[in-house]
Amino acid sequence: MSAWVRVFAYPNALLVSHVHNVLESAGVPSELRNLTLGGGAGDLPLGECEPEVWVAPHNAARAKILVREALEGPVEARPAWTCPGCGERLEGAFETCWACGTHRRD
To answer: Which of 10, 17, 4 is nearest to 47 (CA)?
Structure first.
């Protein structure tokens, strides 16, 4: 797993967990690291104690966009879409169909 890249780090483990959940729900496999190293701050460099989210290199660009949108909101409103799995009509804010779990493809 050392070939993975870090896409987000922050001192607040709840925010890091939220980012991890956003990536996972968008179909981007991710890994949480350093969730329990906060107690080592002072003995270890602060940057090495922050909770982090890591992804495979081929997912890094999409993950960074999703992280930015999770923290700042989408750059522009996305149009509504029709689920390719079941035909359900969904608002643009949704990445995954609530009815069948299919991920948005655009």
So the answer is: 10
pTM of the full structure:
0.62
Beta-carbon contacts of 27 under 8 Å, excluding residues fewer than 6 positions away, are 96, 103
Q: Provide CATH code, domain 5-75.
A: 3.30.70
Query: How far apart are alpha carbons 74 and 7 in whole angstroms?
Result: 18
3-state secondary structure of 83: coil
Domain ranges of the chain: 5-75, 76-106
Q: Is the CB of residue 2 less than 8 Å from the CB of residue 62? A: no
Q: In whole numbers, what is the pLDDT of the chain averaged over residues?
A: 87
CB atoms within 10 A of CB 83: 20
